[in-house]
Amino acid sequence: PTPQHIIKALKRAVDDPANHRYPTYSGMNDFKDVVAQWYKKRFNVKLDSETEVVSLIGSKEGLAHFPLAFVNPGEIVLVPTPAYPVYHISTLFAGGKSFFMPLVSENNFLPDLESIPHETASQARILFINYPNNPTSAVADMVFFDKVVEFARENEILICHDAAYTEMAFDGYQAPSFLEADGAMEVGIEFHSLSKTYNMTGWRIGFAVGNRKAIEALGTIKSNIDSGVFQAVQLAGIEALRGDQACVREMVQVYAERRDLMVKGLRDAGYEVESPKATFYLWVRVPEGHTSTKVATRLLEDAGLVVTPGNGFGEPGEGYFRIALTQKRERLAEAVQRIKAVVY
Q: Which residues pair with 81 in a beta bridge?
């Protein structure tokens, strides 16, 4: 559940009639100020809250609207696969064409930028990346982000980094921001969500930060499509970002325990799975000789378990299935026993 101090902040804000009116499209100044302060404290990235921050009705909304600001019909967008489907869908909504970049284990589930044809790269408008990654749970380091900045400069591409899972990191690992890379502010924008960090999935609040022209363009799209984030929710978001972060540490510990339980159980059952540094996902190889869909179907029919076949996130996801660690430990322990009972 959402931490109590955030819920209490919402209740106070809802009681104030001043918050019942239409909000500003780009977000309350106080909310954007706190976002900038959080970024400085967490990533040592300095932001101008007035021009380099925009509030979102969840990061998915911003990701979905972003190509509308920069992609004309027929233009190319570089999209990872397997990936969160909104990158490709938002490209289609803008009339663009997705050039898919396979994320494979041989390259640590990072896109191979050098394999993109020069003609394609030079014509592309946007490059989507997402680390820590959904669905693979892979992480990226600053060496990779530096390469992305260089690639963007060489090809005049705008980088769109989905950073929704940076705070869901384990064992002392701290996920970096793409905007920490030298020159990243000149070529990119980064999306964050309070959904994962503070268990606020249903509240629909997030933000985008980065290049001021990109932020301005996204804000212009939003001003013609939506009416901004309910002010009471923004005030709760301020409490989340500015308040005691012990709730985040406690949540991370809960997910780490769930991860350890599931990883051990899956390995004992004969599955190949890495123990992720971040996210609440496990990216599990299917048994040899089987497909993602076949394994997902077998687990559903024989064990009553719902997992997501990897090919549902894109063709290179074939050979894997994804497990989300969103159930309680006791429920996951039961799932492990059911998995062990399935015979292929």
A: 102
| 170 and 209, same domain (yes or no) | yes
Q: Which of 242, 275, 310 is the last residue of a domain?
A: 242
State the angle between helix axes of 231-242 and 4-14 in degrees (0 to 180), rounded to the nearest 10. 150
Whether 82 contacts 135, CB under 8 Å: yes
In three-state secondary structure terms, 100 is strand
Nearest in space to 118 (alpha carbons), one of 72, 156, 147: 156
Question: Do 170 and 200 form a contact (C-beta atoms < 8 A)?
Answer: no
- In percent, the amount of the chain with pLDDT more than 90 equals 99
Query: Residues 91, 146: one domain?
Result: yes
| 8-state DSSP, 86 | H
Q: Residue 157 to residues 127, 162, 239: CA-CA distances in angstroms?
A: 7, 16, 36
What is the span of the domain harbouring residue 131?
Answer: 4-242
Quote the CA–CA distance of 67 and 71 in Å, as a whole number.
5
Same domain flag for 219 and 280: no
CA distance 195 to 205: 7
User: How far does Cα 307 stand from its chain's mean position?
Assistant: 19
**pLDDT tens figures, 70-122:** 999 999 999 999 999 999 999 999 999 999 999 999 999 999 999 999 999 99
Report DSSP state, residue 181.
S
Tokens read off for 110: 């990072």
Report residue 285 as tokens.
């190889």
Residues 217, 68 share a domain: yes
- What CATH number should be reported for the domain holding residue 192? 3.40.640.10
Query: Residue written as tokens 């996920």?
Result: 175
